């Protein structure tokens, strides 16, 4: 397992990962988050009163590896080790808001493969709908 | 493995997720998957491009209607998944809209911080129309979520009902204002 990066490194690497995936228009990026529970504190009440830090992981799940069908001649194990990207960082509870603001920005900027808002609609309806509303 | 159904709206997803996180705060995992569809087999894609090219050459109208570039640009999707291995509960939401990304990620941040989204949603809706103390409610929700579990769950239940009932109409109003 790779060591936890600091936030700045994490964002830089994540940006690279997202943009490269978007440019290639293939593969996936998996982002996971879960509480990082400390094994030391045994007191249950203490654990609930103090929220645990959040572990954030990002990986391409090896989906950016060359297509196995196209390059089946190469050694499989070697490819996997070479290409899999794994990033992780730990966010303390008091840093959550700052981190996620930045995280959202990075994701918004990097996930360019998603459907963009129709400009005509945007102009007609105003900027209002941008952030808040879920309209399927 | 049976496929988990996708929740219809992000609001529903966030609400259910927050409830799941409340129930199992320590063992629930949230995954965000940004993915492009699998590339088609090379032979098929080749044949399709050649046919489209020949079609475009013979009839220029089709070229303008469906430019090959847009077809080549695969549409990515974003799938949010909240999974609790202990209970086996899995919630999913899928979108392809870039506009939703920022809001969703921020919401995940709130979830990670243990905030009660369903309560926040209700509070937000009330604030948008009645001008109720939305911000105060947010703070209260945060404190409650960590401090008193029972109080939160009852409060959440009440607010959830209100949020679901009023959500649509109020959100539209909120949209207009901001």
What would your notes on this structure say?
The complex is a heterodimer of chains A (136) and B (178). Chain A is an alpha+beta fold and 136 residues long. Chain A has a single domain, classed as Signal recognition particle alu RNA binding heterodimer, srp9/1, CATH 3.30.720.10. Helix content of chain A is 43%, strand content 15%. The longest helix of chain A has 18 residues, at 7-24. Chain A is globular. Helices cover 62% and strands 12% of the residues of chain B. Chain B contains eight helices and three strands, in the order H-E-H-H-H-E-E-H-H-H-H. At the A-B interface, helix 1, strand 1, helix 2, helix 4 and helix 6 of A face strand 1, helix 5 and helix 8 of B. Chain B: Residues 8-112 form the SRP9 domain.
Which structural traits does this protein have?
heterodimer; A: 136 residues; alpha+beta; Signal recognition particle alu RNA binding heterodimer, srp9/1; 3 strands; B: 178 residues; 8 helices; 12% strand
Short description:
The complex is a heterodimer of chains A (about 140) and B (about 180). Chain A has about 140 residues and is an alpha+beta fold.
**Biggest β-sheet of chain A, characterized?**
3 strands, antiparallel
Fraction of helical residues of chain B: 55-70%
Counted by DSSP, the helix tally of chain A is 6
CATH class of chain A: Alpha Beta
Q: Determine the oligomeric state from the structure.
A: heterodimer
Largest sheet of chain B: 3 strands, antiparallel
Rg of Cα set of chain B: 22 Å
CATH superfamily of chain A: Signal recognition particle alu RNA binding heterodimer, srp9/1
The number of domains of chain A is 1
Q: Which segments of chain B are poorly predicted (pLDDT under 50) over 5 or more consecutive residues?
A: 44-71, 122-178
Under CATH at level 1, the class of the largest domain in chain B stands as Alpha Beta
Structural class of chain B: alpha+beta
Order of helices and strands of chain A: HEHEHEHHH
